[in-house]
Structures are given as C-alpha cells and as structure tokens.
Write a structure and sequence with these properties.
With 175 residues, this protein is an alpha/beta fold. The protein contains six helices and seven strands. The chain is globular and about 60 Å long.
C-alpha cells in the first residue's frame, strides 16, 4: 500500500507544498489527479476564500462560503466539495500515476468527500499523498488502518517519495 500524509505547521503551508509537489510531477510528465487548494486573501479582511484546483488543469472550484466576518463556524461548502470530488472521480482513468489531495478533512473524517476515491486508488496500487491537520490526523490514520506514512512537509521529499513508489511500480510491471 502506497499512502502517505503530510502536515505543515503554518496556516496554508500544506496547501502551498502540495501545489508545488503537483506542479513538479506534472512538469515531469506524470499523470497526476486530485486537488490542490488555493487560498486567496479577502479585501474585507475576513477569512480567506478557499478554492481547489482539480488536477491536472482545472476547473477551479470555490469550496468556501462567506459566512460574515464575525462567524466562527465551518466555512466549507459541502456541495462544492462534492462537485470537486465528482470532477476528480471522472478524470480518474486507467494510467493515472498518483493521487494528490489537498486535505483529508472534516468531510472525509465523517465518511464523505474524497474517502471512496482514496480507497479506490489504494486498491489499484496508485500512490496517494494527502494533506491533513491535527484535527483530522487520527481519523485519517484510522481510515488508513495505521498504514499511512507520515512524511515531513518538504516538497522535494514528497516528490521523491512519490517518484520512488512510481519507479517501484514500473519495475513490478516490467517484471
């Protein structure tokens, strides 16, 4: 099983790192599927807008709702997230090299979101890399049966981990 996760300490840092990983792999010709998150500061100084880019080339989908500056509730728009799930699932065809997902979050921890697609990729022996946070790390470890590798939040190391899995898979296919 080739599944790993990473968590960066700064707000939005995991998103930036995973976007860099996806860009690097795409530039090297790999067939990457999944999502990366793009956070955009708001002019009204409210919480940032959250969008996900469906890999490899879009669309970009706004997954946050504007609930007002004083709101402390979850801003995730569940139907927008499910739209992103649908786009990634539709593009998940034979020959995909790896799956990168910006987050195993609250939605996945509750049994929805990208959970089924992650399981499908693992069953197809496709390397999976996800971001998560401290709130959802235990749920992710439970979901992965404790078999997921925790990797440091360093883009070059994450690329190396994925490429090593892909090369191993190529060797097994050639044998």
């Amino acid at each position: 099983m080739h599944i790993a996760y990473t968590m960066a300490p700064g707000r939005g840092d995991t998103d930036l790192i995973l976007a860099r990983v996806a860009d690097t792999l795409l530039s090297r010709g790999y067939r990457v599927r999944g999502t990366v998150q793009i956070n955009t500061d708001r002019a009204d100084a409210g919480p940032c807008d959250m969008d996900v880019k469906v890999l490899p080339a879009g669309p970009v989908i706004r997954i946050s709702q504007s609930l007002g500056r004083a709101s402390h509730g979850c801003r995730l728009d569940p139907s927008a997230l499910e739209a992103a799930v649908g786009h990634v699932t539709a593009s998940f065809a034979p020959g995909v090299d790896c799956l990168i997902l910006n987050k195993f979050g609250k939605h996945e921890a509750a049994g929805r979101g990208f959970r089924d697609l992650i399981a499908e990729a693992v069953m197809q022996d496709i390397p999976v890399l996800v971001g998560t946070n401290g709130l959802n790390a235990k749920a992710f470890m439970d979901f992965s049966g404790g078999l997921a590798a925790e990797l440091p939040p360093v883009a070059e190391g994450l690329v190396s981990w994925l490429e090593a899995r892909l090369k191993q898979k190529e060797r097994q296919t050639a044998a």
